[in-house]
Amino acid sequence: MITVKTFTFNAYSENTYVLYDETKECAIIDPGMYEGFEQNELAAFIKQEDLNPVLLLNTHCHLDHVFGNKFVAETYGLKPQFHEGELPILNAVPGYAPSMGFTRYEVSPLPDTFLPEKGTISFGSSKLELIFAPGHSPAHLCFYSAADHMLIGGDVLFYGSIGRTDLPGGNHQQLIQNISDELFVLPDETKVYPGHGPATSIGFEKQHNPFF
User: Fold this and answer.
1) Which end of the chain is more exposed for a tag (fewer CB within 10 A), N or C?
2) Do 53 and 28 meet the contact criterion of CB atoms below 8 Å apart?
Protein backbone atom coordinates (compact mmCIF):
# COMPACT_ATOMS: atom_id res chain seq x y z
CA MET A 1 0.00 0.00 0.00
CA ILE A 2 1.32 3.43 -0.98
CA THR A 3 1.75 6.13 1.64
CA VAL A 4 1.84 9.71 0.33
CA LYS A 5 3.84 12.44 2.08
CA THR A 6 3.16 15.98 0.87
CA PHE A 7 5.58 18.90 1.13
CA THR A 8 4.79 22.43 -0.02
CA PHE A 9 7.86 24.23 -1.30
CA ASN A 10 9.09 27.41 -3.02
CA ALA A 11 7.42 30.74 -3.75
CA TYR A 12 4.76 29.05 -5.88
CA SER A 13 3.55 26.82 -3.01
CA GLU A 14 4.24 23.76 -5.14
CA ASN A 15 3.38 20.32 -3.81
CA THR A 16 6.27 17.85 -3.76
CA TYR A 17 5.34 14.23 -3.13
CA VAL A 18 7.19 11.27 -1.65
CA LEU A 19 5.43 7.96 -2.30
CA TYR A 20 6.57 4.88 -0.40
CA ASP A 21 5.31 1.45 0.60
CA GLU A 22 6.13 -1.30 3.10
CA THR A 23 9.37 -2.13 1.25
CA LYS A 24 10.68 1.37 2.14
CA GLU A 25 11.46 2.07 -1.51
CA CYS A 26 10.15 5.48 -2.53
CA ALA A 27 9.48 7.73 -5.51
CA ILE A 28 10.12 11.48 -5.32
CA ILE A 29 7.72 13.36 -7.59
CA ASP A 30 8.10 17.00 -8.69
CA PRO A 31 10.76 18.06 -6.18
CA GLY A 32 10.20 21.78 -5.71
CA MET A 33 12.88 22.54 -3.12
CA TYR A 34 14.58 25.85 -3.88
CA GLU A 35 15.96 26.93 -0.50
CA GLY A 36 18.45 24.94 1.53
CA PHE A 37 16.02 24.49 4.42
CA GLU A 38 13.55 22.91 1.98
CA GLN A 39 16.19 20.46 0.78
CA ASN A 40 16.96 19.65 4.43
CA GLU A 41 13.27 19.04 5.19
CA LEU A 42 12.91 16.50 2.40
CA ALA A 43 16.19 14.73 3.23
CA ALA A 44 15.36 14.61 6.95
CA PHE A 45 12.00 12.95 6.26
CA ILE A 46 13.58 10.34 3.98
CA LYS A 47 16.21 9.58 6.62
CA GLN A 48 13.71 9.55 9.49
CA GLU A 49 11.46 7.04 7.68
CA ASP A 50 14.50 5.01 6.54
CA LEU A 51 13.39 5.27 2.91
CA ASN A 52 15.32 4.23 -0.19
CA PRO A 53 14.65 6.64 -3.09
CA VAL A 54 14.60 4.69 -6.38
CA LEU A 55 12.64 7.02 -8.71
CA LEU A 56 12.73 10.75 -9.47
CA LEU A 57 9.65 11.66 -11.53
CA ASN A 58 8.41 14.93 -13.01
CA THR A 59 4.80 15.30 -14.13
CA HIS A 60 6.04 18.21 -16.25
CA CYS A 61 9.01 20.54 -16.29
CA HIS A 62 7.91 24.05 -15.33
CA LEU A 63 10.50 25.61 -13.03
CA ASP A 64 8.57 25.21 -9.76
CA HIS A 65 8.37 21.43 -10.30
CA VAL A 66 12.06 20.89 -11.12
CA PHE A 67 13.89 23.20 -8.67
CA GLY A 68 14.96 20.15 -6.63
CA ASN A 69 15.95 17.81 -9.46
CA LYS A 70 19.66 18.51 -9.10
CA PHE A 71 19.60 18.09 -5.32
CA VAL A 72 17.81 14.74 -5.59
CA ALA A 73 20.19 13.62 -8.34
CA GLU A 74 23.27 14.49 -6.31
CA THR A 75 21.94 13.19 -2.99
CA TYR A 76 20.35 9.93 -4.13
CA GLY A 77 21.95 9.24 -7.52
CA LEU A 78 18.69 9.48 -9.47
CA LYS A 79 18.16 11.02 -12.90
CA PRO A 80 14.74 12.55 -13.51
CA GLN A 81 12.21 10.74 -15.66
CA PHE A 82 9.49 12.51 -17.63
CA HIS A 83 8.00 12.50 -21.13
CA GLU A 84 10.41 13.57 -23.87
CA GLY A 85 7.98 16.27 -24.99
CA GLU A 86 8.80 18.19 -21.79
CA LEU A 87 12.49 18.49 -22.67
CA PRO A 88 12.15 21.92 -24.35
CA ILE A 89 10.27 23.14 -21.28
CA LEU A 90 13.08 21.98 -18.98
CA ASN A 91 15.78 23.40 -21.24
CA ALA A 92 14.07 26.81 -21.20
CA VAL A 93 14.17 27.13 -17.39
CA PRO A 94 17.72 28.55 -17.03
CA GLY A 95 16.81 31.28 -19.53
CA TYR A 96 13.78 32.61 -17.67
CA ALA A 97 14.34 31.65 -14.01
CA PRO A 98 16.50 34.74 -13.21
CA SER A 99 13.86 37.11 -14.58
CA MET A 100 11.34 35.47 -12.21
CA GLY A 101 13.69 36.18 -9.30
CA PHE A 102 15.21 32.69 -9.08
CA THR A 103 18.87 33.54 -9.56
CA ARG A 104 20.11 30.40 -7.78
CA TYR A 105 18.37 27.80 -9.93
CA GLU A 106 20.54 24.67 -10.07
CA VAL A 107 20.26 23.24 -13.58
CA SER A 108 18.48 19.89 -13.65
CA PRO A 109 20.28 16.85 -15.03
CA LEU A 110 18.72 15.28 -18.12
CA PRO A 111 17.03 11.87 -18.12
CA ASP A 112 18.78 8.68 -19.13
CA THR A 113 15.34 7.30 -20.00
CA PHE A 114 12.12 9.06 -20.93
CA LEU A 115 8.64 7.94 -19.93
CA PRO A 116 6.14 6.89 -22.61
CA GLU A 117 2.56 8.16 -22.95
CA LYS A 118 1.20 4.88 -21.62
CA GLY A 119 2.64 2.14 -19.45
CA THR A 120 3.59 1.58 -15.83
CA ILE A 121 6.51 2.31 -13.54
CA SER A 122 7.26 0.50 -10.31
CA PHE A 123 8.92 1.02 -6.96
CA GLY A 124 8.95 -1.50 -4.14
CA SER A 125 5.82 -3.62 -4.51
CA SER A 126 3.82 -0.72 -5.96
CA LYS A 127 2.89 0.20 -9.49
CA LEU A 128 1.98 3.55 -11.05
CA GLU A 129 0.12 3.79 -14.34
CA LEU A 130 1.08 6.62 -16.69
CA ILE A 131 -1.72 8.90 -17.90
CA PHE A 132 -0.80 11.34 -20.68
CA ALA A 133 -2.71 14.60 -20.15
CA PRO A 134 -1.18 17.58 -21.97
CA GLY A 135 -2.82 21.00 -22.04
CA HIS A 136 -1.16 22.77 -19.12
CA SER A 137 2.19 21.78 -20.62
CA PRO A 138 2.91 19.96 -23.89
CA ALA A 139 3.61 16.45 -22.56
CA HIS A 140 2.24 16.36 -19.01
CA LEU A 141 1.96 12.97 -17.28
CA CYS A 142 -0.13 11.96 -14.28
CA PHE A 143 0.70 8.94 -12.10
CA TYR A 144 -2.20 6.68 -11.08
CA SER A 145 -2.42 3.81 -8.61
CA ALA A 146 -5.64 1.84 -9.06
CA ALA A 147 -4.81 -0.32 -6.03
CA ASP A 148 -4.51 2.75 -3.80
CA HIS A 149 -7.25 4.84 -5.43
CA MET A 150 -4.92 7.79 -5.89
CA LEU A 151 -3.59 10.06 -8.63
CA ILE A 152 -0.58 12.34 -8.60
CA GLY A 153 -2.07 14.89 -10.95
CA GLY A 154 0.51 17.65 -11.36
CA ASP A 155 -0.98 20.86 -12.74
CA VAL A 156 -3.90 19.31 -14.65
CA LEU A 157 -6.80 19.23 -12.17
CA PHE A 158 -7.05 21.22 -8.95
CA TYR A 159 -9.61 21.50 -6.17
CA GLY A 160 -12.36 23.43 -7.94
CA SER A 161 -10.09 24.47 -10.79
CA ILE A 162 -7.79 23.40 -13.61
CA GLY A 163 -4.22 24.12 -14.67
CA ARG A 164 -3.45 27.42 -16.38
CA THR A 165 -3.04 27.23 -20.15
CA ASP A 166 -1.45 30.60 -20.96
CA LEU A 167 2.14 29.36 -20.72
CA PRO A 168 4.17 28.16 -23.75
CA GLY A 169 2.83 24.81 -24.92
CA GLY A 170 -0.49 25.30 -23.10
CA ASN A 171 -3.82 24.54 -24.79
CA HIS A 172 -7.10 25.14 -22.95
CA GLN A 173 -9.30 22.94 -25.14
CA GLN A 174 -6.77 20.10 -25.00
CA LEU A 175 -6.64 20.32 -21.20
CA ILE A 176 -10.43 20.22 -20.83
CA GLN A 177 -10.59 17.25 -23.23
CA ASN A 178 -7.90 15.31 -21.40
CA ILE A 179 -9.48 15.87 -17.98
CA SER A 180 -12.78 14.58 -19.39
CA ASP A 181 -11.33 11.65 -21.35
CA GLU A 182 -8.42 10.56 -19.15
CA LEU A 183 -9.19 11.61 -15.55
CA PHE A 184 -12.97 11.72 -15.21
CA VAL A 185 -13.11 8.07 -16.32
CA LEU A 186 -11.28 7.05 -13.13
CA PRO A 187 -13.35 5.84 -10.14
CA ASP A 188 -15.08 8.63 -8.21
CA GLU A 189 -13.23 7.71 -5.00
CA THR A 190 -9.84 8.36 -6.62
CA LYS A 191 -7.99 10.89 -4.47
CA VAL A 192 -6.24 13.55 -6.55
CA TYR A 193 -2.98 15.01 -5.26
CA PRO A 194 -2.42 18.18 -7.34
CA GLY A 195 0.67 20.26 -7.99
CA HIS A 196 -0.74 23.13 -5.91
CA GLY A 197 -3.39 23.43 -3.23
CA PRO A 198 -5.36 20.80 -1.32
CA ALA A 199 -6.14 17.27 -2.43
CA THR A 200 -9.52 16.53 -3.98
CA SER A 201 -11.29 13.58 -5.61
CA ILE A 202 -12.46 12.69 -9.09
CA GLY A 203 -16.07 12.39 -7.89
CA PHE A 204 -16.03 15.81 -6.25
CA GLU A 205 -14.56 17.53 -9.29
CA LYS A 206 -17.03 15.85 -11.68
CA GLN A 207 -19.84 17.26 -9.54
CA HIS A 208 -18.50 20.67 -8.56
CA ASN A 209 -15.65 21.85 -10.83
CA PRO A 210 -16.93 25.06 -12.50
CA PHE A 211 -14.98 24.31 -15.70
CA PHE A 212 -17.22 21.28 -16.44
Assistant:
1) N
2) yes
pLDDT tens-digit map of 14-53: 999 999 999 999 999 999 999 999 999 999 999 999 999 9
Q: What 3-state DSSP class applies to 42? A: helix
State how far the Cα of 156 lies from the Cα of 146, in Å rounded to an integer: 18
Judge whether 64 and 98 are in contact, CB under 8 Å: no
| Whether the predicted model's global pTM rises above the 0.90 cut | yes
Residue of 123, 156, 160, 124 whose CA lies nearest to 142: 156
DSSP assignment string, 106-170: PPPPPPSS-B-SS-EEEETTEEEEEEE--SSSTT-EEEEETTTTEEEEETSEETTEE----STT-
State how far the Cα of 91 lies from the Cα of 32, in Å rounded to an integer: 17
